[in-house]
Amino acid sequence: MRIRLATNNPYKLAEVSHILAPFGIEVERLDAEKVEIQHDDVVVIAREAAEFLCSRYGDFVVVDDTGLYIEALGGFPGPYAEYVYRTIGLKGVLKLLEGAADRRATFKCAAAICIGGRVEVFVGEVRGYIAHEPRGRGGFGYDPIFIPEGMTATYAELGEEVKNKISHRAKAFSQLGAWLTNKNLFK
Q1: Model's pTM, two decimal places?
Q2: Binding site for Mg(2+): what residues are annotated?
Q3: Between β-strands 61-70 and 26-30, what pairing exists: parallel, antiparallel or unpaired?
Q4: 31, 41, 59, 65: which one is catalytic?
Q5: Which residues are noted in the entry as substrate-binding (predicted)?
Q6: Residues at the annotated binding site for substrate?
């Protein structure tokens, strides 16, 4: 079984490959620019991008979109998390939270796959909070500052094995993997 993930992020490709391996699904990178509409909902963004890429590259194209919703910032950066990370980075986000007592946040991932011109979207969410400083060496992106609910370690401190079982992306892509396996689409 093989799907094509539209991403330029090698860490995301490795993470999704690890998550889908137990389902017998191989992941290859689709070398295509993902069209990303501006919207507040990662589900809408992922669906639109999958529809666009499916029309150009055919079936088994997968797109994911992730948002980080920080309560004290009114849900910011939300679906603009990647842009915010590239422009102000972790230090900038932590600066915005200086003095904030409420550090609750939710990571949300929407994984969309196109098969037969139809798009299915799978959503994973993890609630948690933002650390006061970056911690840990693993992961990528916001992993050094996001602490999942019920834990004291950031994604970056938990390590790949644990993160790939509990993360927002793990939840979304595990649903996708189970759906593909149950549909028996890879004959």
Answers
A1: 0.93
A2: 36, 65
A3: unpaired
A4: 65
A5: 7-12, 66, 140-143, 163, 168-169
A6: 7-12, 66, 140-143, 163, 168-169
Topology of the domain comprising 2-183: Maf protein (3.90.950)
The amino acid at residue 22 is P
Interacting residues of 135 by C-beta distance below 8 A, sequence separation 6+: 144, 145, 153, 154, 156, 157
d(CA 170, CA 126) in angstroms, rounded, equals 10
Tokens of 27: 């992941």
Angle between helices 10-20 and 168-183 in degrees, nearest 10: 50
169 closest CA partner among 63, 33, 84: 63
Burial label for 75, CB within 10 Å (0-12, 13-18, 19+), is: middle
Q: Where are the domains of the chain?
A: 2-183
From residue 105, alpha-carbon distances to 3, 76, 131, 147, 181 in Å are 31, 10, 10, 9, 32
Largest CA distance in the chain: 56
CA 166 – CA 171 distance, rounded (Å): 7
> Over its length of 187 residues, how does the chain's per-residue pLDDT go in tens digits?
899 999 999 999 999 999 999 999 999 999 887 777 889 999 999 999 999 999 999 999 999 999 999 999 999 999 999 999 999 999 999 999 999 999 999 999 999 999 988 999 999 999 999 999 999 998 899 999 999 999 999 999 999 999 999 999 999 999 999 999 998 665 5
